[in-house]
């Protein structure tokens, strides 16, 4: 028996042989994953993030949002091997304004780039008030403005970055809008989309939290695969699990059941990660030790937790060895 719409080639009902050319085309033109910019993590997930949904959770104060912004900035500063252009990255912030997102990334740049005056992102409003007063008095010099100078560097280094926030766009948390942003990211040659965070998404009228999360996770994953975009989503953890993570021993893997409504996250995610800040975490200078643990990995094992050092004042991460050696 042959099937097919008028004017289209007919294939057999049992069509695995008929679709072999499509399979070989996918094989020969497979798109490389986007590196996470953390070498130890990329080794575990076989090169980086692939199209589909990935999750990051963690206990309070571990730096989940900061980690995502840190990775987003570093990814957007890299040249995409597929396009030869800076990597296209979309950030969908459902809690922070676009201005705060930029301030946090600029703060990190101000700390690391020679010639920039370091500033803490929490001082953004204070610097803004000083800027306004100096403009009014005619004494403003942009070269002396730490926020402005850092933002110039951010724009220069990350030309293919897009920030969407729920403050400026009240519909940004609608699932339909998020799916559209994923589609548009892929259509514009982008490779990565960050969503902060899952429990803020409005998936439809009349759904309880579990149903809404299930709908969001399923549709975001399909959109990411369909449009070639790795979607990295911050997800809340259960309060009890967050406390357990804080009080756990160093090196322990907290497991994939840490997330609120974890069954669909465990089932759907290509990868899931937990960022853990222990109660007695080591500290040095402005850094505190945190551990990044893989709790789901479709392409390999969990490996050992990755030891990172987190500077909350500047939204900065480095390896623990870098700050202690």
Automatic annotation (TrEMBL):
**Per the UniProt entry, what are the Gene Ontology biological process annotations, in alphabetical order?**
DNA replication
Q: Give the record's GO CC terms.
A: cytosol
Superkingdom classification of source: Bacteria
Q: What Gene3D superfamilies is this protein classified in?
A: P-loop containing nucleotide triphosphate hydrolases (3.40.50.300)
Protein name as catalogued: SF4 helicase domain-containing protein
UniProt GO molecular function:
ATP binding; DNA helicase activity
Tell me the organism. Collinsella tanakaei YIT 12063
Pinpoint the SF4 helicase domain residues.
34-317
- Give the coiled coil ranges: none
């Amino acid at each position: 028996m042959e099937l097919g719409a008028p004017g289209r080639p007919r294939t057999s009902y049992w069509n695995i042989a008929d679709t072999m050319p499509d399979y070989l085309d996918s094989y020969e033109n497979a798109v490389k994953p986007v590196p996470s910019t953390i070498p130890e993590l990329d080794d575990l997930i076989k090169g980086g993030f692939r199209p589909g949904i990935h999750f990051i959770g963690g206990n309070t104060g571990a730096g989940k949002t900061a980690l995502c912004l840190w990775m987003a900035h570093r990814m957007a500063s890299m040249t995409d091997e597929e396009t030869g252009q800076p990597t296209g990255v979309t950030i969908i912030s459902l809690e922070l304004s676009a201005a705060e997102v930029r301030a946090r990334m600029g703060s990190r740049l101000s700390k690391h780039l020679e010639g920039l005056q370091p500033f803490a992102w929490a001082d953004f409003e204070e610097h803004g008030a000083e800027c306004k007063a100096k403009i009014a008095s005619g004494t403003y010099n942009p070269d002396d403005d730490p926020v402005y100078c850092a933002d110039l560097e951010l724009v220069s280094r990350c030309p293919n970055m897009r920030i969407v926030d729920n403050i400026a766009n009240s519909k940004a948390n609608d699932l339909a809008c998020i799916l559209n942003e994923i589609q548009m990211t892929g259509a514009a040659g982008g490779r990565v989309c960050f969503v902060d965070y899952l429990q803020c998404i409005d998936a439809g009228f009349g759904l309880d939290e579990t149903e809404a999360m299930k709908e969001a996770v399923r549709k975001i994953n399909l959109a990411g695969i369909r449009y070639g975009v790795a979607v990295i989503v911050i997800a809340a953890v259960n309060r009890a699990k967050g406390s357990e993570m804080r009080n756990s021993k160093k090196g322990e893997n907290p497991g994939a059941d840490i997330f609120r409504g974890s069954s669909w996250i465990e089932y759907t995610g290509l990868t899931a990660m937990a960022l853990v800040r222990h109660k007695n975490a080591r500290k040095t200078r402005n850094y505190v030790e945190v551990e990044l643990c893989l709790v789901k990995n479709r392409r390999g094992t969990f490996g050992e937790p990755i030891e990172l050092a987190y500077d909350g004042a500047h939204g900065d991460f480095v390896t623990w060895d870098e700050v202690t050696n």
